[in-house]
TrEMBL record:
<protein>
    <submittedName>
        <fullName>Uncharacterized protein</fullName>
    </submittedName>
</protein>
């Protein structure tokens, strides 16, 4: 694939013939979608999805850290049958790869969250809808059956939160994914330079009726100003209890990076933990999620499932996360970029490629089921040397 062949096309959602010919070239991994999306999307929109906070050290590290973990494959095991299925919060899914919440998906493609919901359902996996979707909980539910989670930002006005959670329950969402790393928005410098704003024809549909569906123009990132105005900076562990008191849905806390917080999360009765650094968009110089994962898993003493979000681009990444104790992973940017390039078909292909890569990784490592993936199938840089050991 050569992205050089693609003409820059500044007009939203139109395609040049060169772009079409590039699209016909075979995409063989999910990273290729990002280059194509960059060519296709207006700069403000691509930058919003792509960027991390400040120096973007964690953004790079989310990927680089995976490459420092190596395999210890086992051989001569009959891998003629491989089972990737798993169960998350009691729901059986086709693979341990789920869709993370990403905001404002109609900026990427007119079908936005509708396409994501359909692609996830077709692949037999879970989609998480962002609070800041450009489609509402009811609209996403109208796409048909599928197991879906709802990501929640807690607004200062708790009536808004209560109403929204009730609407998500009624629309059939199965869990609340509570984002806990965003008392203020991280400093994403391209959004500041671009004066990021939601395009005129779109709104944060869950908040339309409340007059909170638009981002106002500011001298800053429009989203940073919106967060400063609406999101509750005082959010604390007591609010997890409050959330539990207003909904029977299980709560996953998303944004845990330390053993200390993992222990409090377990004591607070959450249903699960998502180890996440918000796609490296909040605090820069936090570790890659694949590095933070193991201490969180250990701290939970396996009392709740732990999931990983951040930097997953390959089936090998998924395998490494499972070997370090994750019960599954969530993918964000690969969904947005494949959506931008090819709508629902793009996301389906992304999910299929990651599925097939994970299956192949398992076969080549001698694992026939997810339960057979162990810590001994990988070597991490923080492991003690094996030479001379009795293992
Ligand atoms: C939304 O959650 C964002 O981080 O931009």
């Amino acid at each position: 694939m050569s992205v050089d062949l693609i003409a820059l096309n500044p007009i939203f959602n139109t395609r040049s013939s060169k772009f079409d010919s590039a699209r016909k070239m075979e995409i063989t991994n999910v990273m290729e979608y990002e280059a194509l999306a960059k060519e296709k999307l207006p700069k403000m929109i691509y930058d919003y999805y792509a960027s991390g906070a400040e120096d973007q050290w964690t953004l790079k590290e989310n990927r680089n850290a995976f490459s420092r973990i190596l395999f210890r494959p086992r051989i001569l095991i009959d891998v003629s049958k491989i089972d990737l299925t798993t169960t998350v919060l009691g729901f059986k899914i086709s693979m341990p790869i789920m869709i993370a919440p990403t905001a404002m998906q109609k900026m990427a493609h007119p079908d936005g969250e509708y396409a994501t919901a359909r692609a996830a359902a077709a692949a037999g996996t879970i989609m998480t809808l962002s609070s800041w979707g450009t489609s509402s909980v009811e609209e996403v539910a109208s796409t048909g059956p599928g197991v879906r989670f709802f990501q929640l930002y807690v607004y200062k006005d708790r009536n808004i939160v209560t109403q929204l959670v009730k609407r998500a329950e009624k629309a059939g969402f199965k869990a609340i994914v509570l984002t806990v790393d965003t008392p203020r928005l991280g400093r994403r410098e391209s959004d500041i330079k671009n004066r990021f704003i939601l395009p005129q024809n779109l709104s944060l549909r869950n908040f339309d009726g409340l007059n909170l569906g638009k981002l106002d123009k500011t001298d800053d990132s429009g989203l940073a100003s919106y967060v400063a105005g609406q999101v509750d900076r005082s959010l604390s562990w007591k609010d997890v209890k409050w959330l539990q008191s207003i909904t029977p849905l299980p709560i996953l806390v998303k944004g845990v990076l330390t053993a200390e917080d993992a222990r409090i999360a377990v004591q607070s009765g959450v249903a699960g933990i998502i180890v996440s650094n918000h796609g490296a968009r909040q605090l820069d110089y936090v570790p890659a999620t694949i590095v933070a994962l193991e201490e969180v898993v250990e701290a939970t003493q396996r009392r709740v499932p732990v999931f990983l979000d951040g930097g997953v681009r390959r089936g090998t990444d998924v395998f490494k996360a499972l070997a370090l104790g994750a019960s599954g992973v969530f993918i964000g940017r690969p969904v947005v970029f494949s959506l931008a390039v090819d709508g629902e078909a793009g996301i389906r292909k992304t999910l299929q490629m990651l599925h097939d890569e994970l299956e192949l990784t398992m076969a080549l490592s001698g694992c026939r089921s997810l339960a057979e993936i162990t810590r001994n199938h990988i070597a991490a840089p923080w492991d003690p040397p094996r030479v001379g050991s009795k293992l």
